[in-house]
Specification:
Elements lengths: L1 H10 L3 E3 L5 E2 L5 E2 L1 E3 L8 H17 L6 E5 L4 H11 L3 E4 L12 E2 L7 E9 L3 H12 L3 E10 L3 H10 L3 E6 H10 L5 H13 L6
Parallel strand pairs: 5-6, 5-8, 8-9, 9-10
Antiparallel strand pairs: 1-4, 2-3, 6-7
Helix pairs in contact: 1-6, 6-7
């Protein structure tokens, strides 16, 4: 599955590698890889492939849950489509509490919900999704797992998930993307070496 999704990402320009003209991320750092998973929501075929992949992970790992939660904002669409497939409630978690009205950080009806499946688009440092899980926990909701489209998690993020006892599953990851890019001539062997060095020395961060 990871290789198939990586090919989709590369073919449609969802993930790009450029070792000469570096990408600038939201935190000001730069790197050789950039992902734009939001482009996936526009194409019906790509949407189906991603949703089917989520479902495959859920079934393979026997995950059971009462509701599906999206991490605002990039994951709300995916969480919504999955909630419709499983005919379950949808909720989402904001990055910060709403600054007006009721000041909610969790949106949606959380009554009669115990177990929640958390959906994220890209995981880098793990901060946004783990903060979402923390917000859920504060409302006595249990995060059974976190699923993401692209796993770019650094070692510290992976450890944080283990410490929180929340399994984390990605449809594809940055190592697979690099290998598939090289094998399918999107990048040269020398560019692949630069890419791998970048992964090890400058962990990818969500932009």
């Amino acid at each position: 599955m990871k290789e198939r999704i990586a090919k989709l990402f590369l073919k449609d320009g969802i993930f790009q590698i450029n070792t000469k003209n570096l990408f600038t991320y939201s935190d000001g750092s730069v790197g050789v890889g950039y992902s734009d998973t939001r482009k996936l929501i526009s194409d019906s075929q790509s949407r189906k492939i991603i949703i089917d992949s989520f479902i495959e992970i859920i079934k393979d790992n026997n995950l059971t849950f009462d509701a599906i939660c999206g991490v605002a904002t990039g994951s709300i669409s995916w969480a919504s489509w999955l909630a419709s497939y499983f005919n379950l409630p949808l909720i989402y978690v904001r990055q910060t509490p709403k600054d007006h009205g009721l000041g909610n950080i969790i949106e949606g009806n959380i009554e009669d919900i115990g177990r929640v499946l958390v959906i994220e688009d890209v995981i880098g440092s793990g901060g946004s999704s783990l903060n979402a899980c923390k917000s859920l926990s504060e409302e006595n909701l249990h995060s059974v797992a976190c699923l993401c489209i692209l796993d770019c998690s650094i070692a510290s993020a992976s450890q944080k998930y283990r410490d929180a006892k929340i399994p984390c599953y990605g449809i594809t990851d940055q190592l697979t993307l690099g290998r598939v890019a090289k094998d399918n001539n999107y990048i040269t062997d020398s560019e692949f070496e630069i890419y791998m060095k970048w992964i090890k020395e400058y962990p990818w961060r969500s932009a």
